[in-house]
Amino acid sequence: MPELPEVEIAMRHVARTARGARLLSIDVPDDRLVRTGEPLLASMADATVDDVWRRAKYGVMVVGDTGMVWHLRMTGKLITARDGVRARASMVFDNGTTLVFADTRRLGELHLVPAHELPAFFASRGLGPEPWPERFEGAWWRDRLGSARSPIKVALMDQARVAGLGNILASEALFEARIAPHTLPATLTDDAWASLAAAVPQVIDRVLAAEDGDEVRYVNDGGDVADTAFCVYAREGAPCMRCGHAIARTRHAGRSTFWCPTCQPDGK
DNA sequence: AGGGATGTTAGAGA
DNA sequence: GTCTCTAACATCCC
Question: Which of A9, A68, A71, A100 is the right S-S partner for A87, CB 3.0 to 4.6 Å?
């Protein structure tokens, strides 16, 4: 499912195939896709893709004076058009590429905003800083998350504290850092914060390396969990890759959490 | 065959 | 400020 690494991969695909190209036409057959700035759609035709970037789990394509912001939500993808893929939107470029927004569950969204209003658009979302690719020290993570009164796993998913981590990465990062997901942030030691500081970018790097390719591929696309880069996610009952103990599954704020009860001790 | 789980965000309410 | 719950949607699994 799309979290920071998957959005990064989708963004790279868009950049690789469309940056510098002229948008010949954009067709949006699904009228529930565009949530903001629908009248700006027409202004993008015939303009050039000047810039492509990512902020948290949002991707941005700047076409002339218009910024097209996308969010993939659960099942969204931005991929090259091909047979059998239903498009909620499709964009034809002068280099022969056609990009489509594919999204079975139709929760993904598109926002069109004047390019100069992009900073205000993101400011209004209240997103915290990017945890990648820049590295931070344990103290930085303690400053961002230490005041949370919810379990550390829930705090990691709070986009206002740190942006881009979702349900899967939160479990993975805590496994990597050897911190139990239900630990209260106030009880974490400096050593634990340092472990977390190292774990988050490391997990993102690992997932990116494993998944990067032409296009995004999600866990539930039909593949086996065993083939994913995840150590604990969706592996309930399987032996822990470090100690062999069975991976456990629990629930935080309504979301499944996967962890190893043996190598992820409380507090630390 | 029906109910729950799936991941994300905004917004409402405590 | 902080936290939890729900809606939005479609598909798969038990």
Answer: A100
pLDDT in tens, A63-74: 999 999 999 998
Sign of CA dihedral A196, A5, A38, A66: positive
Reported pTM = 0.94
A2 is catalytic: yes
C7 C1' – A146 CA distance, angstroms? 30
**Stretch A37-42: mean pLDDT:** 93
DSSP code at position A25: E
Active-site residue A3, yes or no?
yes
Please write the tens of the pLDDT for every residue from A186-197. Answer: 999 999 999 999
Strands A98-102 and A77-80: antiparallel
How far is residue A195 from each of residues A22, A23, A188, measured CA to CA in Å? 46, 45, 11
Quickly tell me which residue has 């964009």 as its tokens: A91
A137 is catalytic: no
Whether A145 contacts A136, CB under 8 Å: no
* Separation CA A55–CA A64 (nearest Å): 19
Token pair 């690992």: residue: A206
